[in-house]
Design brief:
Helix content: 40-55%
Largest sheet: 6 strands, mixed
CATH architecture of the largest domain: Orthogonal Bundle
CATH superfamily of the largest domain: Hypothetical protein af1432
Shape: globular
Structural class: alpha+beta
CATH topology of the largest domain: Hypothetical protein af1432
Radius of gyration: 33 Å
Distance between the termini: 62 Å
CATH class of the largest domain: Mainly Alpha
Number of strands: 21
Strand content: 15-25%
Length: about 725
């Protein structure tokens, strides 16, 4: 269904004329469904806001009170309750005036104060960037939403009126607000099932970001609409005749995508405008669920259905509570016809979403309470994701991922239906079941067959997760999981693991430096350690060790402070032993691929820990000026891990050369991690191999074996 007519007609110019509303207009609109005392409370809130904003002017030159009054009117058109409309009138008083949250609660109610505070932004001056401020504002708003879902409804109404009146802002600010609307607020409206709100926000944002494209598309749609009238009338007449024969009644509406949806479809599917508009869409609204399925039978009998294009969102509703039957038919002249069939309650829910809960005076409609319950489940997931996010920017990235799902539906072994974004894998499914299931996931059965954890799931599949209490999330999962919950939980575990390893490495590094002073960490008194923690203004000593392990704090400085001694004995230090199993805070440089037996040196990198280089690596010479970052390291005696190393082979370009070389490498208990073939002069090629070895002796054995191959002319290890 289209957005309101004003969106199509008045957006031809970026500043369309907003009707001038008064408090009497608002009271008249609300008196149709609210009690007189509640209307009086709304009037009282208006005069309170009017006095608070006295003297404030919008950029258009109008008194500021016109904005909250327009926001309240949007809420009244949605038939929201009186507290929500009061919050719409008062939503800027905490942020823009001297009024405090406490005085609002005392003057009106705690509920109204909660709504207003939830909608209010955070002070932008306390954040490094606008992106941080945006993320923190969303974080706060979502927390308030978890207590009262009406917070986001007020915020969406606020954003809608701001979008309607963007014309008086400078172009840069207009584009920023429009981009934020399309990226965050429009998807939230869709997630909450508020289709009318979403359509208008999208069209307004589209017009601001791409005004020329909007105008061209608007004119094209207007012309196409006139050319389609005859075919639409013919199809409608055929449907009405068949309905009359079957004794069915329905409201038939021609359905047209909003301009932004048409634009997105043209871009993502690379379609021309004619291809997008060559689809005739109808919506049929009937009395009840039984009539929905009877009407579906009528339509499939009238026109042949397109195989695989039928979706039953009544039996399996979308995550936002949307219910309808969708089918695509071969119409007259072979034209495709998209049909949606739904009941009147479903139609109301599809347009208003969670806001439909307040359209019923009793507030007890089964459908609307279900929508609100689904919205709360989504919010709960967002709040769990928020707790696991490392910072506000990571939270914003995860929120964007969560707001753009194309859903699939899979089954648990018990036959329960689970909704997941398109492209989801068994790992996403496991985390959707429970965080503990995801963390302990080792394998999956899809339709009773064992499948890789990276397999993309499809609608209708049955998924069973095999778990083990001794397993942990794998960093490689981040390459294929797509749900925000899975990504957040995996990152949270890895951060925790990295912190534990950093603390252990920090302890080893500190003990190494303390040995130069003939002492150790166990010999330092707890009092001295506590004094150092207080001096650094930290909570505990583990934070110091963590900073040392990650290279964020000088280990020499900490050692000096602990012993309060001179540094002249530093030359007695022993090198730190590297075993190859030092975890995530000791890594091996990719530029030179050091292996056991190579002379090595460690570089302490901020945030990454120790990076081990070969002594003759070019990057070592480039970083020599940072003496305080270098660390003496040596290979431990019991290294058993495999390491990557690069070798270069100059070979004759013969059939089967690569296969012969791969077999030879395998015979020496090595494995090829990567291969790059580079054509040289006629008949020859260079093979760049990255192989796994346990040390220099193992590498020498591999090279000796490769030299025995006739087609290998030259072979050398690559050290950059």
């Amino acid at each position: 269904m289209n957005a309101k007519p004003t969106v199509e007609s008045e957006l031809v110019e970026i500043q369309h004329s907003e009707p001038i509303l008064t408090i009497e207009d608002l009271c008249f609109s609300t008196s149709n469904y609210l009690e007189s005392k509640q209307v009086d409370d709304i009037r009282r809130a208006y005069y309170f806001a009017h006095d608070a904003h006295e003297g404030q002017i919008r950029r258009s030159g109008e008194p500021y009170i016109t904005h909250p009054l327009a926001v309240a009117h949007v809420l009244a058109m949605m038939h929201m309750d009186y507290e929500c409309i009061m919050a719409g009138l008062l939503h800027d008083v905490i942020e823009d005036t001297h009024v405090s949250r406490e005085s609002l609660a005392a003057e009106f109610s705690e509920q109204v104060a909660l709504l207003v505070d939830g909608v209010s932004k955070l002070a932008q001056a306390t954040f490094e960037t606008r992106q941080h401020a945006q993320a923190e504002s969303l974080r706060k708003m979502l927390l308030a939403m978890s207590q009262d879902i009406r917070v986001i409804i007020v915020k969406l109404a606020d954003r809608l009126h701001n979008m309607r009146t963007l014309g008086h802002l400078i172009p840069e600010k207009r584009r920023r607000i429009a981009h934020e609307t399309l990226e965050i607020y429009s998807p939230i409206a869709q997630r909450l099932g508020m289709n009318l709100m979403r359509c208008e926000l999208e069209d307004l944002g589209f017009h601001v970001l791409y005004p020329t494209r909007y105008r061209v598309l608007f004119e094209a749609v207007r012309k196409a609409r006139g050319n389609r009238k005859e075919i639409v009338s013919q199809i409608t007449a055929s449907i009405l005749n068949r309905m009359e024969e079957e004794g069915l009644t329905a409201d038939i509406q021609g359905r047209e995508k909003n301009l932004y949806s048409i634009y997105k479809k043209m871009v993502t599917k690379q379609l021309s405008f004619a291809e997008v508009m060559d689809v005739y869409a109808f919506r049929m609204v009937v009395d009840d669920i039984d009539s929905c399925y009877r009407m579906l039978g009528v339509m499939h009998n009238l026109y042949k259905p397109v195989q695989g294009k039928f979706k039953d969102y009544i039996a399996i509703p979308k995550a936002n509570g949307y219910q309808s039957l969708h089918t695509v038919l071969f119409g007259p002249y072979g034209l495709p016809i998209e049909v949606q069939i739904r009941s009147r309650d479903m139609d109301q829910m599809a347009e208003a979403g969670v806001a439909a809960h307040w359209l019923y005076k009793t507030g007890e409609s089964e459908g609307s309470s279900q929508a609100e319950r689904r919205a709360r489940q989504w919010l709960q997931g967002i709040l769990e994701m928020q707790k696991g996010s490392g910072d506000s920017i990571e939270f914003l990235e995860n929120l964007r991922i969560d707001l753009f799902p194309e859903e699939i539906y899979v089954f648990t072994p018990k036959g329960e239906i689970m909704s997941l974004p398109r492209g989801a894998t068994p790992v996403d499914f496991a985390y959707a079941v429970h965080s503990d299931v995801g963390n302990s996931c080792v394998a999956a059965r899809i339709g009773r067959y064992l499948s890789p954890l990276s397999t993309q799931l499809e609608t209708g599949q049955s998924v069973e997760i095999i778990s083990s209490p001794n397993t942990h999330p794998n960093p490689a999962w981040l390459n294929f999981v797509i749900t925000a919950k899975a990504r957040t939980n995996i990152r949270q575990y890895l951060k925790h693991l990295k912190n534990e390893e950093a603390i252990l490495l920090g302890r080893r590094l500190l003990n190494k430096h303390l040995r130069a002073f003939s002492t150790g960490l166990d010999d330092i008194s707890q009092q001295r350690i506590d004094e150092l923690v207080a001096e650094f203004e930290l909570n505990n000593f583990e934070q110091i060790l963590d900073d040392i392990g990650l290279g964020n704090r000088s280990v020499l400085l900490v050692a000096q402070k602990l012993i309060q001694s001179d540094t002249s004995q530093e030359q007695n230090q022993q090198p730190l032993m590297i075993a190859g199993t030092d975890g995530m805070v000791v890594s091996f440089a990719r530029c030179c691929h050091p292996i056991p037996g190579d002379p090595i040196q460690g570089y302490v990198s901020t945030g990454r820990g120790i990076i081990v280089h070969q002594v003759n690596c070019k990057n070592v010479h480039n970083l020599r000026d940072k003496n305080e970052n270098w660390l003496d390291v040596a290979w431990a005696l019991d290294v058993s891990t495999e390491f990557l190393v690069d070798i270069l082979l100059h070979v004759k370009n013969q059939r089967g050369a690569l296969a012969t070389i791969a077999v030879a490498v395998s015979e020496t208990d090595s494995n090829i991690d990567n291969v790059v073939v580079e054509e040289r002069d006629v008949g020859y090629a260079d093979l760049h191999l990255t192989i796994e070895v346990t040390g220099r002796q193992h590498l020498a054995r591999v090279i000796r074996r490769l030299r025995r191959i006739d087609m290998v002319e030259r072979i050398a290890r690559v050290n950059q």
